[in-house]
Write a structure and sequence with these properties.
The chain is mainly α and 172 residues long. Helices cover 60% and strands 0% of the residues. The chain starts with 22 loop residues before the first helix and ends in an 11-residue tail after the last helix.
Length: 172
């Protein structure tokens, strides 16, 4: 995870590298669009929620809750690792959830949307979920470029060791 455009002091910290300049605004816009679409489709218009008839509540609610809890865990622990302590020597973060996936906070966002989609399957909101995945992948690649430029072979090795999105079942 990276924050702000270059590795100049972000939040007064030299240990943070940078983020895509449109990352925060894009995430907020997509989150608002997703939320409004999901709420309106689920509770008012009900145009694209017909799949809910085929996937029973006893499947949708537990899976949705598990995804929402996992999303919260990834976001909380990922953000606390990055922002909870200032590292004296800047370097690639490899501990905790960052040892499982390279972008746990962005993954938490993807799982948050998926959790809501499990609670009520709105195809209109699912389109925004797919767009959000594309956007998060794009900004992640940009930020990885900043990290490769700053940390070189150490970050490239991290990229080989830790998958971007989907955890490995077995360690290499």
């Amino acid at each position: 995870m990276v924050h702000k455009h270059t590795h100049k002091k972000e939040h007064g910290r030299d240990d943070l590298t940078g983020e895509h300049p449109a990352g925060d605004a894009g995430q907020i816009i997509l989150a608002c669009l997703f939320a409004v679409t999901w709420i309106l489709d689920t509770f008012i218009f009900k145009y694209t929620i017909f799949l809910n008839r085929y996937v029973p509540l006893w499947v949708r609610i537990p899976s949705g809750v598990v995804l929402l809890v996992l999303s919260g865990y990834l976001a909380r622990t990922g953000l606390s690792i990055v922002f909870g302590e200032e590292r004296k020597r800047p370097g690639v973060i490899r501990k905790g959830v960052y040892s499982v996936v390279r972008h746990p906070v962005y993954l938490s966002e993807i799982l948050l949307y998926l959790g809501f989609l499990m609670l009520s399957i709105s195809l209109a909101a699912a389109v925004l979920w797919v767009i959000a995945i594309g956007f998060l992948h794009y900004i992640s690649r940009y930020e990885e470029g900043l990290l490769r430029a700053r940390f070189g072979k150490d970050y490239r090795r991290y990229m080989q060791d830790v998958p971007m999105w989907i955890p490995r079942l077995r360690k290499r």
